[in-house]
Amino acid sequence: MCNLYNIKADPKTYFDALAAVDDPANILAVDKDYAAPGKPGYVVRRQDGQRVLSTMRWGFPTRKPRKRPAREGELPFLHDWWTNARNMQSSMWKPWLMRTEHRCLVPFTSFAEPKAAGDRRGPGDTNWWFTIEDQAVPCFAGLWKVDQDHDRVYAFCTTEPNPLVAPRHPKAMPVILLAEDQERWLRAPVEEALTLLTAYPSQLMRAD
Question: Model's pTM, two decimal places?
Answer without folding.
Answer: 0.94
